[in-house]
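During the reporting period the student researcher (J.K.) took over the structure-prediction task from the postdoctoral fellow and processed the backlog of single-chain submissions. One of the processed entries is reproduced below for the supervisory committee.
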Amino acid sequence: MRLVGIHHTHPSGAVALRGADLDVDPAVPTVVRGGNGAGKSTLLRIAAGALAPTAGEVEDVPEVVGYLPDRFPAARKLTPRRWLDHIARVRGVDVDDAADRADELLTELGYDGDDDEPMADLSTGNARKVGLVQALACEPGLLVLDEPWNGLDDDAADALTRLLAARAAPTLLTDHTGTAAGLPGARLHRLREGRIATASDPDSVPLPTAPPPGAMMRLDMACAGDPRPLLERVLPPARVEGAAPGRFTVRVPAPESDAWLAAALAAGCAVRSVRPVRPAPPRGRR
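J.K. obtained the following structure tokens:
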């Protein structure tokens, strides 16, 4: 699936997107990052078909799209399972198959709400789990998740991470927790001023899905205060190329970069840039 030249202006006149281009990887997660108000939720709503862009094209959209918005509308009178059946019918998938898959997912995520309880009365965590199940149970050709770890307890968050790590189909998501960066092969993109940053932009975060043998990545990170205690005691081993108050740069093998970024984000660091290290040119023969 591709987003090409996406512009969007809200009815208020606020401009959210200014020509965003994004290819959603067919086999590994595509993660969009950016500050508050960067347009991430608007971009995901357009990708999911929940909002029409002011201009631009959404290409190669699969027939079934699973979508979890950032604020899941749980104020409904239907019980969770009746609502999940309704969603399956709306999407045109087999209701019985979707119900069986929903039961499996509810169990895996640790849902413990009352089956006869209206969704409006569910706890925040249980409502969030039902929201995830409605997006996942239809076996979507494209899965769009806006901050999916929000509101989950630790066990449910771990279960969701396992489910997404095992998925081998297009997945587009935003995540401020840093968990998505640790998903296998995740490709990270930064949304700035309504556009997806390019590889030449210092704020972009491109990650290769299949680095060549021996490839190295240079990670430029921001942190609070002196980074040396983090580098010495908290973060995985790496070749430190520079360290100063508030930032540091390390070089790590490309296959380890996903896990290293996830550890750094969990420790409270922020990504400034991620770039491949260019190999030294061969010496000329005399």
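The committee noted the following: Helices lie at 40-48, 80-91, 95-108, 124-136, 154-166, 228-234, 257-266.
J.K. will present the remaining backlog at the next meeting.
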